[in-house]
From TrEMBL:
This is 17.6 kDa class I heat shock protein 3. It comes from the Eukaryota. Residues 45-159 form the SHSP domain. The lineage of its organism: Eukaryota, Viridiplantae, Streptophyta, Embryophyta, Tracheophyta. It holds the Pfam family HSP20. InterPro entries: A-crystallin/Hsp20_dom, HSP20-like_chaperone, Small_HSP. Belongs to the small heat shock protein (HSP20) family. Keywords: Stress response.
Length: 159
């Protein structure tokens, strides 16, 4: 097994995938010191949650997107289809309220906004998209149009 996939976050996406609008961040997953002036604090707060992991599979009937969004309610997630066949999934996880007397030992859960966009293929029925959320997993189903089989006409050979 290669070390490269685990080093870059075990990404399964292909850089040459024409349907993906995902932008690779070479610094994703690297810890930044809180004293770094180059990275604004808002970026550090949202960096872990900014790239929600989404699986996209194609079946004979539909394109199915699954996103793990633990702790989010369906009201905090937005699914949209833009003109040109672009599926956009976005949302926000609020930061937990801090009390004056609380002493934090570790903060690993991320908060902030996320936004993912996918260019859908031409055979996607963008007017029939459905979405459901169960146990922190968002499932978006985009039905596909039936592929018309070309008519084959037999030509009689004379002679």
């Amino acid at each position: 097994m290669s070390l490269i996939p685990s080093f870059f976050g075990n990404r399964r996406s292909n850089v040459f995938d024409p349907f993906s609008l995902d932008i690779w961040d070479p610094f994703e997953g690297f810890p930044f010191s809180s004293t770094v002036a180059i990275v604004p604090s808002s970026s550090r707060e949202t960096s872990a949650f900014a790239n929600a992991r989404i699986d996209w599979k194609e079946t004979p009937e539909a394109h199915i997107f699954k996103a793990d969004l633990p702790g989010l309610k369906k009201e905090e997630v937005k699914v949209e289809v833009e003109e040109g066949g672009v599926l956009q999934i976005s949302g926000e996880r609020s930061k937990e309220q801090e009390e004056k007397n609380d002493k934090w030992h570790r903060v690993e859960r991320s908060s902030g906004k996320f936004l993912r966009r996918f260019r859908l293929p031409e055979n996607a029925k963008t007017n029939q998209v459905t979405a459901s959320m169960e146990n922190g997993v968002l499932t978006v189903t985009v039905p596909k149009e039936e592929v018309k089989k070309p008519e084959v006409k037999s030509i009689e050979i004379s002679g």
